[in-house]
Design brief:
By secondary structure, this protein is mainly alpha-helical. Helix content is about 70%, strand content about 0%. It has a domain at about 1-35 and about 85-270.
Length: about 525
């Protein structure tokens, strides 16, 4: 294994991505620490903690966040149950994107071929990337660990905080190792990202399903293994050791594959192309769909499966709600009312709507991504229209919003009906899902506006989505004022069926989406196309 001059490549990667890494590290640390001082206001007295503990045993909350553990439900355990899995999920996505960015993406762009002409070893870049992810995950783990303990909140002590930090870092390393293997197998960065992100999603589904119905099965997922650390209770270290061993094995496999494959190729055989391009590629809209279809189809399958996974907990959730006075009060329903299933479905489909916003943003941002890679120059140098190209991505984003919510509702509703004693009507599920389409259209419009006016700021779409998620996910628990939640599109709409349906928020969101799209298209047609 020739790793000559890997240190120089490591320094180059740090120099190249210094702001990218800082932004991710600060964001993950903020997510893992800044909510700590808020939780004491939520906990209240012992009676309130008992009520919260009962609520967090709800199968839906277990599927979304994680299992409850320990002899006594403390503030620290509640924080872990709400935040550990989501922190690890964010770190996992960061790791796979970082690895692919410095391996398959650089190889696809020809950068590694240029570096290969210099006195560097064949495995030097792989070694540099491996050291980079180890260093970055170690920093994230330490900052999260010491950051949580620094607030001095009761029961959130330093050993437990460091256990959380180590668990999150170890989980990130496993997905980094998996990405290192994936980039040796695939031939394109797009394919590598698709497989890697799908793997993260499957790990979440395995963890969610195992936590609800078969706890031992959740250990098949890195996201389930980290829950076994039980921070602030037993602080077990063996799950972290297991994840580190898995990372070392995956890294060894990646180095082995990297030595035998040809530069620019993957281990999987290359798919043969067609002799002639289809007629659909003769237009801007067809090209937009061709670029995005693989990613969107994969996301469609993912949201359908995730919706089915959430639907599978409805039977347990219904039984829990019927036996819990506190949960009935929280939902604002009468336990004898069969419509109780509606508010439960609305809560789960809201999470699905936020997840469905991810492929919508991907469809929008792909236009800016192709521009940064200088792939639009030869296209727009022909008779192709900028306006039609922009509108093609806008149309695909809008259709994606509708299709993703439809698939989520179908997966959820079909499975929920099979497990519930009093099945929720499918038309109710579809109406709840339709209520979340206008927020998705607004997210698409915001992204299109940024692409047109300031493509370097398209990342703000992700920031806004993450902020919206935590406002909605933690808003009710943290007693965030509804006025503040209405700053997000998902908080602006009424929570039908537990709230009276109002049409005006949907009209406002659709009108804003249309305005932002038109303004973005006008700006896109007039500005320069640059790398």
């Amino acid at each position: 294994m020739d790793t000559t001059n890997w240190l120089q490549l490591f320094k180059f990667a740090l120099r190249r991505d210094r702001w990218y890494l800082v932004a991710w590290i600060v964001g993950i640390t903020a997510l893992g620490t800044l909510l700590v001082p808020v939780f004491p206001n939520l906990a209240g007295d012992d009676a309130s903690m008992s009520v919260l503990g009962e609520m967090m045993e709800n199968p839906a909350m277990v599927a979304i966040g994680g299992v409850r553990y320990g002899d006594e439900y403390t503030l620290a355990i509640m924080y872990t149950q709400m935040m550990l899995v989501w922190m690890a999920l964010l770190v996992a996505i960061f790791n796979v994107l970082l690895v692919i960015r410095h391996t398959r993406a650089d190889e696809e762009a020809g950068r590694l071929e240029v570096l290969g002409s210099l006195p560097v070893g064949r495995s030097a870049n792989l070694m540099a990337v491996t050291v980079l992810v180890v260093a970055v995950n170690a920093i994230v783990g330490l900052m999260v660990g010491f950051g949580q303990a620094a607030f001095g909140v009761e029961t959130i002590d330093l050993p437990g905080s460091l256990t959380i930090g180590a668990a999150v870092a170890a989980c990130g390393l496993v997905f980094a190792g998996l990405a290192l293997v994936i980039v040796q197998v695939t031939q394109t960065s797009r394919g590598a990202v698709g497989i890697a992100v799908t793997s993260v999603g499957l790990a979440y589904l395995v963890r969610a399903g195992g936590d609800v119905s078969a706890p031992a099965a959740s250990l098949a997922s890195p996201l389930g293994i980290i829950e076994a650390t039980e921070p602030f209770y037993s602080n077990k270290l063996w799950p972290i050791a297991v994840l580190v061993v898995v990372f070392l094995v995956l890294t060894g496999v990646a180095f082995g594959l990297g030595r035998v494959r040809d530069l620019g190729l993957g281990m999987l055989p290359q798919r043969a192309g067609h002799a002639h391009a289809p007629r659909s590629l003769s237009g801007e809209w067809g090209m937009s769909w061709r670029i995005l279809r693989g990613t969107l189809i994969a996301w469609g399958v993912a949201v359908f499966v995730l919706g089915a996974s959430y639907g599978s907990v409805m039977g347990d959730m219904q039984a829990f709600a019927e036996s819990s006075d506190m949960y009935q009060s929280m939902l604002g329903v009468d336990p004898s009312d069969p419509s109780m299933a509606g508010p439960m479905a609305a809560m789960l489909l809201l999470i699905m709507a936020i997840i469905s916003a991810i492929p919508v943003i991907i469809a929008v941002n792909k236009l800016a991504s192709e521009e940064r890679k200088s792939r639009l120059d030869p296209v727009l140098g022909t008779a192709a229209s900028r306006g039609r190209l922009f509108f093609g991505h806008a149309l695909i984003a809008g259709i994606t919003a509708v299709v993703m919510m439809a698939l989520s509702a179908l997966g959820f509703g079909l499975v929920a009906q099979s497990v519930m004693d009093s099945p929720i009507p499918m038309d109710t599920v579809l109406r709840i899902a339709a209520n979340f389409i206008p927020p998705l259209l607004f997210v698409a419009g915001l992204g299109l506006f940024l692409v047109g006016f300031a493509k370097r700021l398209v990342g703000l779409s992700w920031v806004y989505l993450v902020a919206s998620f935590f406002m909605v996910y933690l808003g009710g628990i943290l007693s965030i004022p509804r006025a503040a939640m209405r700053a997000t599109p998902f908080g602006l709409i009424q929570r039908w069926p537990q709230e009276e349906f109002w049409l005006w928020p949907d009209i406002v969101l659709i009108a804003l989406a249309a305005f932002l799209t038109i303004a973005g298209q006008a700006a896109y047609r007039s500005r320069d196309i640059t790398a």
